[in-house]
Amino acid sequence: MNMPANRPIISVRGLSVGYGNTPVLRDISFDCRPGQFISLLGPNGAGKTTLLRTLSRHLSPLAGEIRVQSRPLAALPAMDLARIMAVVLTDRIAPPLFTVFEFVALGRYPHTDYLGRLGAGDRLAVTTSLAAVHALNLAHRLFADLSDGERQKVLMARALAQEPQVLLLDEPTIHLDLKHRVEVMAILRDLCRTKNITVIASLHDVDVAAKVSDRVALIKDGGMIDWGAPESALTPEAVAGLYDFDKAEFNRHLGGIELRGEGDRGRAFVVGGMGSGALVYRMLAKKGFAIATGVVHTNDLDCFVARSLGADCVTVDPMETIDAAAAQQAATLLDDCDFVIDSGFMIGAGNLANFDLVQTALNRGKTVFSLRPHQPGTPLAAGCVHCNTAVQLIEALDGFAAPSTLCRVQEA
User: Fold this and answer.
1) Contact 173, 184 (CB under 8 A)
2) Cα–Cα distance between 234 and 102 in angstroms, integer?
3) What pTM did the predictor assign?
4) What is the pLDDT of residue 404?
5) Residue 394 CB-density burial (10 A; 0-12 exposed, 13-18 middle, 19+ buried)
6) With contact defined as beta carbons under 8 Å apart, do 133 and 160 qualify?
7) What phi, psi does 14 have (nearest 5°)?
8) What is the torsional sign of CA 33, 39, 43, 47?
9) Tens digits of per-residue pLDDT, 90-145?
10) Are 78 and 57 in contact (CB under 8 A)?
11) Domains and CATH numbers, the chain
């Protein structure tokens, strides 16, 4: 029975889950609708797998109610549930002597007769399921001979052969290389869109979850601390609290996590803008430099990356020309830095003050590394250490001892 898109296919109210009489999660309530991709996020041991096993009826709830298509989960006959819900857990299985086609055909059990005989429609369903996960070429191979990535796709094909409306997965990419991780997540996302299947998956990749999910559940400390669209629920503060981040920050604008450096090798001022500084900021953080930057617009990629890395930023509003006040603020911040990097930003009427800022750094005796093409005879040509690539800049910085670092060594 297909559910209207505005009605929950799974409804959870006041649910507590756990083992024996010991709850792992308490008082959880949420609704899952047809075609949604729902990610369960949280640290190891938070209870994501326990929740999935309870939703799939591998475990009985300790309290509360789960309804599937408006019917109590506990009251659903096993075959009815198998036609609605398929499950892919992390248990490693290696059935001997099964070809991939035969293994996927096991997923047809809710639809075959009591002897499990396959009809033409069943064989078509198996073939269609393999094609849906891009594994049709594996049909005649032995399941036991497959790689981890191939096995995961075949496990998904077996689940799809049930023709479910809900697909539960426990860390579907945990053993996969990057290629297969991306491929599996793309397949799952497309199943939601093209077949209106509700996918509920426990994940560890917050950045992936942000890109594919319609809803995310943040699970920690014995409960669901938030539920909602990733665009609202996955704030930097929420993700940091969920995983106890100390030196990293999730940025929803960037769709990923930035890793902060120690800041113990000195302090760099980056004259950036127009996205030219993002790579430089990350490189400096990786190499252990503290970062200051300016003048950048608040809607610039550089601004988002720099702030995620904990940099001191001098900013102006979007589309505004960099004014004298912002330029002076940047020059003051520059004075407290050990060296300056000209990121090679494009020069226009709105950011001429940044070009002047590079010259100001030279006039004040700062070491200036520049990623701008070397142009003999120009005002900046003689004073800058020119680097044609980011790799050359890294090599130049590896040989540079910041004065503040030298002072710390001498004091020690």
Assistant:
1) yes
2) 41
3) 0.83
4) 54
5) middle
6) yes
7) 60, 35
8) positive
9) 666 767 788 999 999 998 888 876 767 888 888 999 999 999 888 999 999 999 89
10) no
11) 10-251 (3.40.50.300), 260-411 (3.40.50.720)
